[in-house]
Write the structure tokens for this entry.
Amino acid sequence: MAQSRRTDKAQQAAAAGAGPRILKKYPNRRLYDTEISSYITLTDVKAMVLDGTAFEVRDAKTGEDLTRSILLQIILEEETGGVPMFSTSSLAQIIRFYGHAMQGMMGSYLEQNLQTFTDVQARLAEQSKGLYDPKLQSPELWTKFLSGQAPMVQNLMGNYLEQSRNVFMQMQEQLNKQAETIFPGTVGRTAPTKR
């Protein structure tokens, strides 16, 4: 009941609102949604993320942006319960990039790869849309869908890998430019051979 009231208020506020929804975090660790004038939970914030709702989390006293912190908290809860997305090894590798010269590029690389993966996922969903409607399902449709999946997935993954390679090449070019700035005249030179 309270959840549906929150949803109704949120929909009304979204229709009238401009800009991201503002959530305030109080010292007692509670989150307050200013659009619906109600306290909400991390589960509500997760639902906003899944719905694609733009929002910002601000410290109620200082106004500091805490959005990333709240999103990381949601990821932590998801990782500790259920089936984790990140292996221990991948988390350790991510930690190793903090403070490393490649930290900024790695963030960009991961962001672009996640976007590409999301795009691939959306294309697959679009391709299989007719399979979810019982009125459109037929044995012929299933046969056509399944026979087209292997080449389509190969094509999508090929595009994904190509985009990933391009992002990596851009990172390498940026690194070369930075190295040239720091060490003029050294990029592209080979080490002298020993006699």
In short: The mean pLDDT is 78. The CA atoms of residues 176 and 182 lie 10 Å apart. Residues 139-182 form the longest helix (44 residues).
